[in-house]
Amino acid sequence: RDRLALRAQAPALLDPPPDEGYDADELAEDPEIVRGPDGAPVSVTARLFLSYSGQSHLNNVTVNLSLPSFVKCRETSIKVGQVRGAGGTPAIVPVVLYAARAAVPASLEVRASAAYTTETGEPRTAHCAFRLPLALAARLTPAVKTNTYKFTLDTNRPPCQLVPLFEDMFSQPGLGEDAAQRLAGSANALSFQYWVAGEDGAPLDVTVLVSKAAGRYRIQSASLAALWLVSDDLVRRLAAFYGVRDDSEQSEKPFAVEYTEPLPLQDFYTMIDHHLECRHTLLAKNSSLNDCAHQFRIIEKRLLVRFKDRNPAPLAALDVLMEETYKRLLELAGEVEAAQAALRRAANRLSCTARLILMLVRYRFGLDDTNFNILSANFCPEVVDNPEQGWEELVDAAMTYLLRTALAKTQKETALLQPSVAMPADTAKLRKHISIVCDRLNKGHRLAAPVKKQTPKQKAPPTKKSPAEERPTEEDRDRGDSSVDGSQMDHAIGSIAEEDEDKDSSGGGSGRGEGKR
To answer: By C-alpha distance, which of 9, 195, 4 is closest to 95?
Structure first.
């Protein structure tokens, strides 16, 4: 079958500093783009490979990129003129991705899709996903002791040194050997600093500490949202590191992570409250802007009527009122933009925190991949707000659905009415539903039923009957009881046949004998 194959490759190291004669594009001059210690933009060049298995070639292939919130690209939609087939050289599309100060990194995954049309006119697509290096989101920094938020992950493996685990972070361009040695001085602690600053403008740091005696890792930071990305990357690196060792050593138990501390739900609820408050603020600002714009249009119409009139009436300070309304309109427009920016920041931090809570729930209750994927799909960790439907009402409806179906304790709970999906006044119901879901997961309830392995049924050996049980009774003979087995029936039929043969051979002697009697 003719199809387009799309794959991607992202290096572990950032792009080196450009030459002196480098002509930077307009995106590299953007003030939102992060610049490293050497003044060069922090970027990585990924390569997309497009290969076609058909005998001819494809024309006008469109490649679209879905980027994380902290990544910028010059073009997210790229046109590829021709892709050769018949096993030809794949078309290579280089993509330069820049780190921006827009938001706290919530994901390192980039999704790419290629849309094309076959020779017969059928539209088709090809998809792939790849991860960006951690260095595009953060850099190494001297150890920081801030531990406002912290948690500990336990593993079933001996402790791993952090320097070889994050070896690529020590090999980034712009980091000298002396600086790398200073950062690697403490083998049991490693601190990362995001390129984006915190809400108060202070640096956003995350520190990873490893125990010397057991495979325990503590992650701590001054921001709850900042814990997510480093924690996720740490677990991925540990799984890859011990996965390779387990294959070579043939370990019986697979690598596992556990979380035994209480879930930070109260801090998560505070983040939800702040996000909902930003939504209400934006709604109020939009309403005020709409009222002010309506007032401005009315004043404008009255002035136009008087301007067209041959004998106009006095303005009665309408011009002054229009000028003041226009100033107020500009002020409200600025307030709406500020409220939108605040909502984006709140949504970004809520998204990071929701992903962190999901990870901790998974390791706290030992969820497998199936149950975790179902919970993630209902928890909506990627916060997307629109005027018609927000994150709070969407997750509340999803949690209510889980409590009515997979996590229902009684038949009465399955008959509960589905709540209306509208912006709530507060988060009381959402808090309650999330707490109930976590409580039932803690009690052993699962979202997906376990798959039962079907074992072939073995036939029971026949029981040996006593002679009395094998001998048919008079009732069995009279009614032809089906409880008599086949061997008994064959024996009875054989006996009857022998009696009939004896009668035939005697030539009716039995009748003469009866007459004598």
So the answer is: 9
In the CATH scheme, what is the code of domain 4-133?
2.60.40.10
Write out pLDDT tens, residues 290-317: 999 999 999 999 888 888 887 777 778 8
Closest to 426 measured CA to CA, from 264, 275, 263, 224:
275
Give the residue extent of every domain in the chain.
4-133, 138-259, 265-443
pTM: 0.82
Tell me how far CA of residue 327 lies from CA of 297, 321, 347, in angstroms. Answer: 14, 10, 30
Q: Which of 108, 134, 264, 269 is nearest to 208 (CA)?
A: 134
Give the Cα separation of 512 and 503 in Å (integer).
Answer: 12
At 119-162, the pLDDT tens digits run 888 899 999 999 999 999 999 998 888 889 999 999 999 999 99
3-state SS, 377-411, equals HHHCCCCCCCCCCCHHHHHHHHHHHHHHCCCCCCC
**Two tokens at 253?**
């138990």
Q: How far is CA 363 from CA 189, 209, 215, 258, 360, in A?
A: 23, 19, 15, 5, 5
Residue 121, Cβ neighbours under 10 Å: how many?
A: 6
